[in-house]
Structures are given as structure tokens and as C-alpha cells.
Amino acid sequence: xxxxxxxxxxxxxxxxxxxxxxxxxxxxxxxxxxxxxxxxxxxxxxxxxxxxxxxxxxxxxxxxxxxxxxxxxxxxxxxxxxxxxxxxxxxxxxxxxxxxxxxxxxxxxxxxxxxxxxxx
Length: 120
Description:
By secondary structure, this protein is mainly beta. 0% of the residues lie in helices and 60% in strands.
């Protein structure tokens, strides 16, 4: 089994910054894409940003230029640095990782989610 543990959420004022972290542990052979998703009340879960093992990144349009995703492959950890936060960024943020647990098995794993609230 593989576990993803997120940290770093909280309450921040508009224009502020937060840094989310997510560490993977367990039966890991290799990790391919790691990413962050979010889900606001009454809305579907959406991709925020993702990064491949080679460092290629992809961002949702509304966060491009404000959020930065990075990963530490040696520590199986992904980060999301969020700046210039807006109230519409308020959501539960979930970490995701596509993990190969052996040469033939690969699947997506999810963290438990961390709340980010942007409010004055």
C-alpha cells in the first residue's frame, strides 16, 4: 500500500501565500506524475497543477503565474507554493500520485485532503 500525507493548509487573507506539502510512503517502486487537485463546496474536483518525474509542469489557467508546483524525487514529496491567493481559491486541496508498486502494477493514490481558506 501507498500513503500520501498532506500538510500546510489553513486560513490566509486575500493576497497571502501558503505552501502545501505531500509526502508519499509505502510500497513504492517509482512515482510518475504527482499533482494537486482541489474541490470547492458544490463543485467538481479539478486539477490545479501536476508535475512529471522529469519536472514537466502543467497548471490550471486560473492559477498559472500564482502557483508553483515542485517535487523532491529523492523524498517522494511534492509541493505547491501558492501566492496572491484569492477567495475563489478556497477549497479542499488533494494530493495525487501515480505510483508503480512493482514492474507491472501502476495506479493513482490520493491524500486525505487539506483545507485552504482565503478570507479576510
